[in-house]
């Protein structure tokens, strides 16, 4: 879908106000990488409007919370922080803004209005384009603003962006989700799937390459449905993108998008999160195999290893289908590794079901597992299910899964010792200035002795030891 362009009228108006004095902002991000990417855009808007970033809340003229609502703990963190910033507001009258997915939930907005009346602006994921106008009006008129849209917002292009990192960058390729997994609030707050045009994505990544970025993370709630909704409306949909050497490429799917991005000179690594196992088509497997820059590492959310639980989760695959998919990918791409997301304690999960999850974990031998304790989300189907699992059982299962996951990670780490790994050097240790840090293609952290000239380069390093959450490497002479 062709996005709409960000309008800079109100950014310019705020700049008129901020130009003679130093104005500062701070931003706190909760949640996933899509939210972090949104925060980089909010920072971009504020910096264009004349604010500079500070970590010190007390000296901020604007404090932004970019919230998430996927699990409950983010809410507790937000309320804790709001208590703290109230003091600063009383002292210096800063503007307090809450944005992000949590604001798309009516009960949360009501709670903020009732219990935290000092909050100035709330906005949702569909209304970022109005943020400059909302801030301008708040400065001029001192009124409270609630700017939330129930319908799906358009895709916004050309938003100013301030990226946290100089080597790796995230690029959203789509927004929203159509899957309605029964535990998940995302489809309700982020709306239906909408894909960005490949031309806009291509231009953004080309700009990033020009600025020296080496690694691109393509982001979406369900990346392998890229352009699928659009193709339902227009089955012949196809974009023609002219690449640097003047040749033309056709893009109409996630696989063809990967092939397009793979051609951008300067970019050395491409990753993506998250694909849905049910949509992992053969053309995507072929593209990963063929594209030299696409990391041979796939984040493949399992959620549960029990076919019965998967059905209740509305995941649309069975334990066996998931395992077959892993096998098929391994057969086609022999060195591929996987990471995953797992939820423990979904309603009705029995000991047998949980053992099925452990069975898949033992079979697939993931490089990394992101483990979550099931958290009830108001408005989702699973929240209304009977047989909610008692907290102590959820925690006990979580601990068992964690122990097994760590044993596997340790075993797998040992296999790295003595091997040569290509490591993209990303930064320096904060505590020891000789130690540099980077990642393997399989996303393992490697620390080693290096120098500044190595930053942003991919170096072959020999792995000499393993330490659970990182490996130690050395340069090969
Ligand atoms: N409770 C626990 N974990 C959840 N996730 C999504 N919704 C919930 C929930 N209600 C997890 C899933 C998803 C990841 C981003 O967050 O594992 O893949
Ligand atoms: Fe949530 Fe499922 Fe969509 Fe992922 S695919 S965002 S878990 S509904």
Question: What does this molecule look like?
Answer:
With 477 residues, the protein is of the alpha/beta class. The protein folds into four domains: 144 residues, Methylthiotransferase, N-terminal domain (Rossmann fold, 3-Layer(aba) Sandwich), CATH 3.40.50; 131 residues, Transcription Regulator spoIIAA (2-Layer Sandwich); 114 residues, Transcription Regulator spoIIAA (2-Layer Sandwich); 59 residues, Beta Barrel (OB fold (Dihydrolipoamide Acetyltransferase, E2P)). It is 35% helix and 23% strand. The protein is built from 14 helices and 23 strands. Strand 13 and strand 14 form a beta hairpin. Helix 1 packs across helix 5 and helix 9 packs parallel to helix 10. The longest helix is centred in the last third of the chain and has 26 residues. The site of iron/sulfur cluster has 10 residues, from helix 6.
Topology:
Blueprint: E1 4-5, H1 9-18, E2 23-29, H2 33-48, E3 51-53, E4 62-67, H3 73-92, E5 95-100, H4 106-115, E6 121-123, H5 131-141, E7 145-147, E8 156-157, E9 168-172, E10 174-175, H6 186-190, E11 194-195, H7 198-210, E12 215-219, H8 228-233, E13 239-242, E14 248-251, H9 254-261, E15 269-273, H10 282-290, E16 297-299, H11 307-312, H12 319-332, E17 337-344, H13 351-364, E18 368-373, H14 391-416, E19 420-428, E20 435-439, E21 445-449, E22 458-466, E23 471-475
Helix pairs in contact: 1-5, 9-10, 13-14
Bound molecules: 5'-deoxyadenosine (5AD) and iron/sulfur cluster.
């Amino acid at each position: 879908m062709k996005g709409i362009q960000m309008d800079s009228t109100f950014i310019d108006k705020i700049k008129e106000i901020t130009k003679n004095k130093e104005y500062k902002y701070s931003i706190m991000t909760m949640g996933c990488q899509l939210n972090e990417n949104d925060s980089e855009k909010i920072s971009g808007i504020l910096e264009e409007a004349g604010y500079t970033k500070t970590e010190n809340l007390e000296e901020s003229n604007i404090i932004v919370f970019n919230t998430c609502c996927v699990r409950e703990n983010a809410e507790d963190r937000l309320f804790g922080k709001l208590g703290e910033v109230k003091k600063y507001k009383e002292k210096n009258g800063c503007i307090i803004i809450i944005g992000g997915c949590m604001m798309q939930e009516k009960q949360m907005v009501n709670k903020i209005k009732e219990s935290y009346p000092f909050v100035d602006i709330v906005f949702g994921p569909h209304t970022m384009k109005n943020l400059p106008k909302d801030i301008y009006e708040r400065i001029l008129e001192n009124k409270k603003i609630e700017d939330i849209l129930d319908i799906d917002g358009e895709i916004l292009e050309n938003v100013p962006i301030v990226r946290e990192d100089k080597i790796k960058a995230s690029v959203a390729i789509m927004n929203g989700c159509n899957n309605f997994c029964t535990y998940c609030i995302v489809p309700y707050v982020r709306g239906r799937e909408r894909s960005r045009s490949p031309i806009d994505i291509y231009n953004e990544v080309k700009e990033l390459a020009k600025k020296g970025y080496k690694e691109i993370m393509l982001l979406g709630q369900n990346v392998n449905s890229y352009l699928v909704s659009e193709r339902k409306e227009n089955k012949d949909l196809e974009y023609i993108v002219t690449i640097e050497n003047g040749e033309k490429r056709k893009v109409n799917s996630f696989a063809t998008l990967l092939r397009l991005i793979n051609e951008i000179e300067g970019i050395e690594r491409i990753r993506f999160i998250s694909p849905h196992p049910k949509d992992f088509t053969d053309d995507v497997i072929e593209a990963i195999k063929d594209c030299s820059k696409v990391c041979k590492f796939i984040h493949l959310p399992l959620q549960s290893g029990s076919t019965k639980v998967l059905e209740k989760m509305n995941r649309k695959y069975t334990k066996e289908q998931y395992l077959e998919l892993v096998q098929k990918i391994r057969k086609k791409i022999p060195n591929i590794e996987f990471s995953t997301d797992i939820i423990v304690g979904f309603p009705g999960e029995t000991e047998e079901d949980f053992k099925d999850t452990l069975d898949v974990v033992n079979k697939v031998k993931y490089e990394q597992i992101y483990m979550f304790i099931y958290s009830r989300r108001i408005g989702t189907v699973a929240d209304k299910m009977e047989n909610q699992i008692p907290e102590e059982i959820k925690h006990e299962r979580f601990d068992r899964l964690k122990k097994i996951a760590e044993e596997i990670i340790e075993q797998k780490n040992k296999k790295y010792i003595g091997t040569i790994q290509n490591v993209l050097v990303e930064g320096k240790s904060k505590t020891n200035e000789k130690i540099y840090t980077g990642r393997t293609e399989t996303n393992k952290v490697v620390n080693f002795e290096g120098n500044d000239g190595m930053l942003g380069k991919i170096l072959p390093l020999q792995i000499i030891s393993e330490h659970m959450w990182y490996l130690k490497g050395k340069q090969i002479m």
